[in-house]
Amino acid sequence: MQQDQIGVETAPAFYKIFVADLDRSIGFYSSCLGFREQRRIDAGKFDETVLVPARQGASVVLCCWKDGRAVQRGTAQGPTGYFVSDVDGIAARMIDRGARTIISPVDYAGMRIAVLADPDGHRIELLERKSADASP
Questions:
Q1: What letter would DSSP give residue 9?
Q2: What single string gives the DSSP state of each residue in 67-131?
Q3: Lateral strand order in the sheet of 111-117
Q4: Which residues make beta-bridge pairs with 51?
Q5: 46 in helix, strand or coil?
Q6: What's the predicted TM-score (pTM) here?
Q7: d(Cα 83, Cα 125) in Å, to the nearest integer?
Q8: pLDDT digit string (tens) for 95-131?
């Protein structure tokens, strides 16, 4: 079945995730994946911190409940994926910063991939293109 083309181009703007410790998560995503803090927002019942990538791409918005409620993850969300230049090195850095390995680095379909869970359990898929002219 063919979908109707409506003439609209889209690109992901951000991924929003709730975390237990905002400062820990800012440090994790900054030191492991090169994000930098753009701004903090008081969203009423929770605080948001917008992290932007070093290069172009979608932002990660980290949210933390002000009332201290636990972060609950459902089963309807897959990992967020990131193209990186060194899957093995970045996976090791993530583990040093509190991540847990789900799938150890492995070559698959012309790429090197790994899946880890951040300190709050959010899954992150790292992808490294293996062709000579590829860049993240």
A1: -
A2: T-PPP---SS---EEEE-S-HHHHHHHHHHTT-EEEEEEEEETTEEEEEEE-TTS-EEEEEEE-S
A3: 80-83, 123-129, 111-117, 100-108
A4: 37, 60
A5: strand
A6: 0.82
A7: 9
A8: 999 999 999 999 988 899 999 999 999 999 999 998 7
